[in-house]
Specification:
By secondary structure, the chain is α/β, with parallel strands linked by helices. It is 42% helix and 17% strand. The chain folds into three domains: 74 residues, no CATH class; 115 residues, Aspartate Aminotransferase, domain 1 (Alpha-Beta Complex), CATH 3.90.1150.180; 245 residues, 3-Layer(aba) Sandwich (Aspartate Aminotransferase, domain 2), CATH 3.40.640. The protein has a seven-stranded mixed sheet, sandwiched between helices. It binds pyridoxal-5'-phosphate.
Length: 471
């Protein structure tokens, strides 16, 4: 037996719901189709109609069907929200220069222009203009790298994690790799040296202790199955106190005496000594080559200041083995990265590191930062905010130089009408989001990492956010 349909007041109106065809002729529908395309616009209108129908059915007292133009505008909002970019530019006021969550190194103007040129048309990525035939993508950044570092050869891949994996897979597969217990590090984002070694097919042989490893620990662990000693710069933490590790030259001697390789995951890609900026020196890429490392791996977008890339430099015969390994094809660098990397390396070759944003920020004089902080604070105070400058610390970040900071001057804003967390949330919700630090109930803004030209936007966002006005 079929039970009679219960009729709610809502059901009667359903008949009056517009059809998709009618909505497509409604005011605003033409623009909707132009902006998003016919099929997505139709799908969104159908979804809005479904929602409206469900709402009418769910409401015991029925309800009115919104006018057609409102349904069209609801569809527009749906599509705009669904298609809004999620990778958005932000203003970094945290004072962390190489902020991995915020995209690491901003590119220099020349690197940006090179990437744009490579991207927007065709390019000689693998084309030899002299010969009129296929060329090699290896030529673009790699001769600059050898010139800069004195290494015999170089290879650029997708990132340093890939570089280390490729190095171990191509040179140590099914063999043993000796590494100090003090260097079995996790870099972040899931990059753990023991896991990468396992993935490469090499066997990990741990030596020494967490705090101290001696040259003889390595020597004693060498067997007929050993392929290499791996040195890893523990980028993001520091062992202080009773700690020690043989230097790279000693490790190179230990390895080479036995016909083994010394591989070095340098990490940061520092081509210059950070010591001159009052930071504790860390081994540079050049130090690795000079010490006799056979292959050195490092990132393109940390202290090197370029695009995401993994760079391998070292002995020509070894780099050639890496280049020919099947994994090399899987992790190769793209034309945008190669173009931006070559342009970034050129800044080093022409002795113009100030062209590289990361180095400009590291080298920026405290006086200069303090003057900018003062100017911001004055502008904020004249807009009625409680703002003052105070000494603070900037960090190099990117898992480099742990525990070390650069003295800076920050603007501290004490919010009165909202809590600091709410203020920070409003800054993040702005059309151009601002990322800041909070300490002791105050919002801290570090001019060091705010790029030229961003200050006006930052100050406007802040004024609006403290007033609690609509963004
Ligand atoms: C950062 C880092 C990595 C990973 O490099 P990515 O470019 O992020 O892939 C590997 N090893 C060391 C020592 C690092 O510092």
């Amino acid at each position: 037996m079929v039970s009679p349909m219960t009729t709610s007041p809502g059901r009667a109106v359903l008949r009056d719901l517009p059809s998709i065809d009618r909505l497509l002729r409604a005011p605003g529908a033409g623009e909707l189709v132009d902006a998003f395309g016919r099929a997505p616009a139709t799908d969104a209108l159908r979804a809005v109609l479904d929602e409206t129908r469900a709402a009418l059915l769910g409401r015991a007292a029925g309800g009115d069907i919104p006018p057609d133009f409102e349904l069209v505008s609801a569809a527009r909002e749906r599509l705009a929200a669904a298609l809004a970019p999620t990778l958005r530019p932000v203003i970094n006021a945290t004072g962390v220069i190489i902020h991995t969550n915020l995209g690491r190194a901003p590119l220099s103007a020349a690197a940006l222009a090179a990437a744009q040129q490579a991207a927007e048309g065709y390019a000689t990525l693998e084309y030899d203009l002299d010969e009129g035939r296929r060329g090699s993508r290896a030529v673009h950044a790699e001769h600059l790298l050898t010139r800069l570092t004195g290494a015999e050869a170089a290879l650029v891949v997708n990132n340093n994690a890939a570089a280390v994996l490729l190095m171990l897979a191509a040179l140590c597969r099914d063999q043993e790799v000796i590494i100090s217990r003090g260097q079995l590090v996790e870099i972040g984002g899931g990059f753990r040296i023991p896991d990468v070694l396992a993935q490469s097919g090499a066997r990990l042989v741990e030596v020494g202790t967490t705090n101290r490893t001696h040259r003889r620990d390595y020597a004693d662990a060498i067997t007929a199955d050993t392929a290499a000693i791996l040195a890893v710069h523990h980028s993001n933490y520091k062992i202080i106190g009773f700690a020690g590790q043989p230097d790279l030259a000693d490790l190179a001697a230990t390895a080479h005496e036995q016909g083994l390789l010394l591989l070095f995951d340098q990490g940061s890609g520092a081509l210059r000594d950070v010591g001159v900026y009052g930071l504790e020196p860390e081994p540079t890429v050049l130090d690795g080559i000079k010490a006799g490392c056979d292959v050195v791996a490092f990132s393109g977008d940390k202290l090197l200041g370029g695009p995401q890339a993994g760079i391998l430099i070292g002995r020509a015969a070894l780099i050639e083995r890496l280049r020919r390994h099947p994994l090399a094809r899987a992790v190769r660098a793209d034309k945008l990265a190669l173009a931006a990397l070559a342009a970034t390396l050129t800044h080093y070759l022409t002795d113009d590191p100030a062209a590289i944003p990361v180095w400009r920020m590291i080298a920026r004089p405290l006086d200069d930062i303090a003057a900018e902080a003062e100017a911001w604070a004055a502008r904020l105070r004249s807009a009625g905010l409680d703002a003052a400058t105070t000494p603070g610390e900037s960090f190099v970040g990117g898992g480099s130089l742990p525990g070390q900071s650069l003295p800076t001057r920050v603007v501290a804003v004490t919010p009165h009408d909202v809590g600091p967390d709410e203020l920070a949330a409003r800054l993040r919700a702005a059309p151009t989001p601002v990322i800041a630090r909070i300490r002791d109930g105050r919002l801290l803004l570090d001019p060091r990492t705010v790029l030229p030209g961003q200050a006006d936007v930052l100050l406007r966002v802040l004024q609006r956010a403290t007033k609690g006005a609509e963004q």
